[in-house]
Design goal:
about 15% helix, mainly beta, Immunoglobulin-like, single chain
Length: about 150
């Protein structure tokens, strides 16, 4: 076999492998923008949870925040999952369980709601809303969370 055919065969193999890698490597989840500009797109994580309110970078103008959305049934345990609100320093200022609004024992989406009351924060300061799957096993490999930036 001459060197030209070996080069063509090698290039073909490289192109095929590169194409396969692009198709089989999972896409990374996009993070919500942190520029301080509210978005019109709900925050979501893979195909597991979507938060419809508040939207990323929403301004929270009171000391109560109501969080709504939908999550796959396996995000819940006993019809709830933990939610935390952190201030600009990362300190938890409110937390509680989001409650499923219908039967959670499914792989389909189930709506949820939670209202958190927190101490007043400096105007314009940033915070983070953290929604975590309920992980009763405690296995870090099974822990998932969705972080949503908010502005007080």
């Amino acid at each position: 076999m001459n060197k030209g055919w070996i080069l063509v065969a090698a290039l073909f193999v490289i192109i095929v492998i590169g194409t396969l890698v692009l198709f089989f490597i999972p896409a990374r989840t996009a993070k919500a923008p942190t520029t301080g500009t509210a978005t019109t797109t709900p925050a979501s994580l893979d195909d597991l949870i979507t938060v419809t309110s508040p939207l990323p970078n929403s301004i929270i103008s009171s000391t109560t925040i109501t969080v709504t959305g939908k999550a796959r049934g396996n995000w819940y345990f006993e019809a709830s999952f933990p939610v935390k609100l952190k201030d600009a320093n990362g300190t938890v200022i409110a937390q509680g369980p989001a409650q499923a609004q219908s039967d959670w024992m499914t792989t389909d989406y189930v709506p949820f709601i939670i209202s958190l009351t927190f101490p007043a924060q400096p105007t314009g300061s940033k915070g983070t809303l953290v929604l975590m799957n309920d992980n009763p096993s405690g296995d870090p490999a099974k822990q998932k969370e969705l972080d949503i930036p908010v502005i007080f």
